[in-house]
Specification:
With 257 residues, this protein is an alpha+beta fold. It contains five helices and twelve strands. The protein has two domains: 195 residues, 2-Layer Sandwich (BirA Bifunctional Protein, domain 2); 48 residues, Roll (SH3 type barrels), CATH 2.30.30. The strands form two sheets. A seven-stranded mixed β-sheet has the order 1-2-3-7-6-5-4, sandwiched between helices. The structure holds adenosine-5'-triphosphate and biotin (BTN).
Length: 257
């Protein structure tokens, strides 16, 4: 069970995921959260970059030491984190996002949050996991390459004519409290059995036509939902396939979702 969460904040780090890994290697206990006002080397999936400009967004990572889970269950942690962020953004700011499988939260078709879970092994076993979350909060503009698909909490509050004020600290704490709740439910069964229904309620891709960008060849499919391991179930002709996270990206046929 994840119980005690301890917060540390730094003005600037390279990557909060990397700072957690360093502490984990030095023997830190589960539950440490490191957040930063900016990252100089924020990371996304598959070697991509994550932009966390100074004072505009949340960059936060937690150290986990799950006992008795195996490598196949690790991608589910990202799925759970997505549920936690979606719920926390709704609770703290009133913004109802959706989950773009596997690791993004989208609002009105644009990405407001990305999640990166990393694992380190020792003597053939999982030594620790790091789950890192980036949320765009006060950003008003984005670089040209991501402007078409990125949004922030402030931009969405403005669109909704809301007077709510977003606080990075409050949202961060709300995210990890929510994560603790979902993660402990996950640990009971080691899979999505008790969480799958709620996840699918917020799955942006559900029933959508998607393009599966597999390094071995891209193809079109219809997204059906997820299985208990958090893999995406898609229908291709009469066949149902399970897509695991890995190197695969899922895109809408007409856009990002
Ligand atoms: P997928 O996860 O489906 O493969 P993705 O484009 O969301 O696709 P990720 O690896 O999840 O890719 O996220 C990294 C990408 O997110 C970067 O390549 C960049 O396009 C985009 N990105 C980087 N920083 C931000 C940000 N602050 N807000 C929104 N998007 C960002
Ligand atoms: C993605 O969308 O590909 C994942 C982006 C994950 C970004 C967060 S910000 C906090 C943590 N530190 C990192 O370097 N990456 C994650």
């Amino acid at each position: 069970m994840l119980e005690d969460i301890r917060y540390e904040f730094y003005e600037s780090v390279d990557s909060t995921n990397d700072r957690i890994k360093e502490r984990a290697r030095a023997g830190e206990k589960e539950g440490l959260v490191i957040s930063a006002g900016m990252q100089t080397a924020g990371k996304g999936r598959i070697g991509r970059k994550w932009q966390s400009p100074v004072g505009e967004s949340i960059a936060t990572s937690i150290l986990l030491r799950p006992a008795g889970i195996d490598i196949a269950q690790v991608p589910t942690v990202t799925i759970i984190a997505a549920m936690a962020v979606r719920s926390a953004i709704e609770k703290s700011c009133g913004i109802s996002g959706l989950i773009k499988w596997p690791n993004d939260i989208v609002v009105d078709g644009k990405k407001i949050c990305g999640i990166l879970t990393e694992m380190e092994m020792s003597e053939g076993r999982i030594s620790h996991l790091v789950c890192g979350i980036g949320v765009n909060v006060h950003n008003r503009t984005f670089s040209e390459d991501i402007a078409y698909k990125a949004t922030s909490i402030d931009l969405e509050l403005e669109k909704a004519n809301s007077t709510a004020k977003a606080s990075c600290k409050e949202i961060t704490e709300c995210i990890w409290e929510s994560f603790k709740k979902y993660y402990n439910v996950f640990l009971e069964t080691g899979d999505m059995t008790n969480l799958r229904e709620e996840y699918e309620k917020y799955l942006a891709n559900k029933n959508a036509r998607v393009r599966i960008e597999d390094p071995e060849g891209a193809y079109e499919a219809r997204a059906l939902g997820i299985d208990n391991r958090g893999q995406l179930l898609v229908e291709v002709g009469n066949e149902t396939r399970c897509i695991s996270t890995g190197e695969v990206s899922v895109r809408g046929i007409y856009g990002y979702i």
